[in-house]
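Annual report, structural modelling task.

Input specification for the iron/sulfur cluster complex:
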Amino acid sequence: MTTADTPSETSTHFRTCPLCEATCGLEIGVSDGAVTRIRGDRDDVFSHGFICPKGSTLRQLHEDPDRLRRPLVKRDGVHVEVTWDEAFAEIERRLLPIRDEHGADAVGVYLGNPNAHTIAGAVFTRPLLQVLGTRNLFSASTVDQMPRHVSSGYLYGNPGAMPVPDLDRTDYLLMLGADPLESNGSLCTAPDFPGRLAAIRDRGGRVVVVDPRRSRTAEVSDEHLGIRPGTDALWLFALLHETIGSHGISLGNCDGMVDGIDGLAELVAPFTPEAVEDHCGIPAATTRRIAAEFAAADHAAVYTRIGAHTVSFGTLGSWAGDVLTLVTGNFDREGGLMWPTPCHGKPHVAGSAPGGRGFRTGRWGSRVSGHPEVRGELPVAVMAEEIESPGDGSVRALITMAGNPARSTPDSARIGRALGSLEFMVSVDIYLNETTRHADVILPSPSALEKAHFDFAFYGLSVRNIANYSPPVFPPEGPSEHEIVTRLALIVGGQGADADPELVYGLITGQVAQQAVQLEGGPLHGRTIDELQSAVEHLPMPERIIDLMVRCGPFGDHFGASPGGLTLDVLAANPHGIDLGPMVPRADEVVRTASGQIELGAGPVVADVARLAAVLEEPPGDGMVLVGRRHLRSNNSWMHNVEVLVKGRARCTLQVHPDDATRLGLVDGKEALVQSRVGEVSAPVEVTDGIRPGVVSLPHGWGHDDADARMAVAARHAGVNSNLLTDGAVLDPLSGNCALNAIPVVVAPA
Ligand code: SF4
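The model returned the following structure:
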């Protein structure tokens, strides 16, 4: 049984875990309407039974008494439960006048990370944003992966196409700023990352981890290099310098597809291994050896992630990792960096010309500081100033969806004050947390077990091509999540919350159908939009959009044109997922630069390399710096209300090297005061030789000490908010991403 209609029966359900990017298959037992057990689905075609401690807590999340079941409206400063009709009426009554009087930009939007893991976030926010028309769009992307989008934008003309390391076929994996044994992988969807790393070593390959901390991932690698925080780009440029100078350039599958290769040696000329040695803290001889090993490996890939991205040279770090993979002949080939083929994406048309419109940023800028938009977003670091600074275009009302910027974004004391000054705020969220406590209306999403699931985001980042659809285990108590978002769109659009959601649903399916029929030479070319829409209109949402997209996609049945191809029915009949095979070379499909080539000489990148070279003219930093860290039982800020995940030894500690502890008079278990330019926190010290001297580490997402939040378990394990220390003024200029690592701090006994 896989459907949600008879919760009183004892039944087993198979679904994809929506909590992180690994997309593990879960087996969920239900009896008398309650979950009795959750374990890894051993028959899942991708995860083969792997599960982490978070996956089994979907039951606790579903049953959490603090999870909101009914909307809240703030009356006289207190949140009170109301009906859905009352909540939507309140939004209509208060949001629309602000927009009418002050214009579209007066309503800002913040989208949190979980939106990437839901169908509503992936598909249904788009019409809401379209009807809002605001330039004040912010998201967790600019405290996370935006540098990776931007490097893909400049290299491939396609910011959505972020190549992933072909973990299962590589012989040499060079990881910078990634700790997949804690994160379970990011921008690289690979359930059982630990097993896949072990397999590289088992088949004679090599795993090298570059990280200021000897992370758990570093512990299971062949080699760990304890780089100074914030210098990953410098070191990768030195690897490029050494590779080009000593081992030459080999483009492999990409030969004839790369523009600007002749200028690369000159671009990387300043970055000799000796020039970066003291800045990075990696001996030149080691850099030369790693370059030689990487160039000699049969299949090699660089995997850069959050520690290398959330710094002031984040885009260059991402760019250089891809280019090193490219010039060693490992790009777009098995065992290197590749692009998966999402089953809901556009089908390839043989013989179609490569290229497209390319990539650019800065179509508008932020009102106060002039930061350029990137992918339609402004840096979340400027959200507070866009709220606080009066004038035309200031943010007076805010919609947050599944986000907690009061804990997840830099200088969050200021963010908290700014949220408190808004004229009106709506949050779509399951908790009354440190952010949503400021909201005038909170609309609770259903629990993860009450939603259908399909990984629109992560099939594009997956190390194998996979398709898996999960129906809800239980029916939602209130409206479905996509309906909530749709009703917001209807309100903003002036139709009112009671208008027929089909107005929006038709828009969404129409856009997908239009793209399919317009694809010249594609399998649906010549069919009509109406024809495709009619074929799926009997289905409810969101199944209708899933069916439409997979049927139009590269593995789809193309509405009869490709018999045996994917449909929603086929997905539903395969609850353990469908393995569509390994990644295949597809640069000619993916590259959308104007030239149709992978472009190494994009102007903004070249200009930023000059900024990187200027670092070499300065003395290496010698003060203490702060970095973050992940933990397997944590998931940014929102899963700390699950007792089983937070119990035991406190994890929100300040890690300090023993030499620094002695020098600074810090004692294990005692409090330390950490001060940055923007704030200070006091945290318990954890002395460990697993961190580089000169570096301290605090995990993010903690600080559940807000009396107005309603998360009882989290409040008992509050920890401290590391983003009181991170500085919103320090950004990666190409992407607008905040520098959440390498923050200068002063540390002393509290
Ligand atoms: S690794 Fe991620 S997807 Fe897998 S069970 Fe854990 S939280 Fe869920």
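The chain is about 30% helix and 15% strand.
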